[in-house]
Structure formats: C-alpha cells, structure tokens
Specification:
The chain is mainly α. It is 41% helix and 6% strand. It has a two-stranded parallel sheet with strand order 1-2. The radius of gyration is 13 Å and the shape is globular. The relative contact order is 0.22.
Length: 106
C-alpha cells in the first residue's frame, strides 16, 4: 500500500507539487473524490502511515491501495483553484471540493 504523501513524492512534471497540498485540503479532496458516490473502490490509504484521513473509506468491493491518477490530477486542479481564488465552482468534483471545504458533507 502507498499512502498519499508517499505517492505524491513520486510525482514529476506538472504533478510534482501535489504533495504541497495542505492537510485540511487533502481531506476535502478525498471527500470530493473518494466517497462511495464518486468511486467504486474502498480507500485503504491515508495521508501517511500514522496520519489517518477522517473521511469514510467507502464500501467498494475492490480495495484502493494508493491514490489513483484521477485523484492526483484532481489534487492538482484543486490546488490551482485555491491559488486563483476560484470560488464559483458549480459542477462535478470542483463543486464537491468546495462543499467539503465549507464543511458540508458530499
């Protein structure tokens, strides 16, 4: 199994900075992307081995043993949203991320 920080350290190119995401923002990204309504896998990874992400892991039949490429891409997108101060996301993952950030459950 590979936790988020370990997976993020392996990223290169445009994804090299995904590991810079803040801890709270990581929780919001997981809530936007990895809950049962969005993913059919059951998340087994956390931020690190000793830093558990407090978002439901899901009930999927298949284990998710590391952050997938879709999740890494979305983390990058969420980071760009934060940098630009975008606050008008109304569709898909962006809207779920904003909802999670504002304290609403998706």
């Amino acid at each position: 199994m590979s936790h988020f920080r370990e997976t993020a350290e392996r990223q290169t190119g445009v994804y090299a900075d995904v590991g810079d995401i803040g801890r709270e923002a990581l929780d919001h990204a997981v809530e936007a992307c990895c809950v049962d309504s969005q993913c059919s896998a059951r998340r087994e990874w956390d931020a690190t081995d000793d830093d558990e992400i407090a978002v439901p892991r899901g009930d999927g039949e298949f284990p998710c043993r590391e952050p997938c490429s879709l999740f890494i891409a979305k983390v990058r997108e969420f980071q760009k949203m934060e940098e630009c101060g975008e606050d008008d996301a109304e569709d898909g993952y962006r809207a779920r991320y904003r909802s999670a950030r504002r304290g609403g459950r998706t």
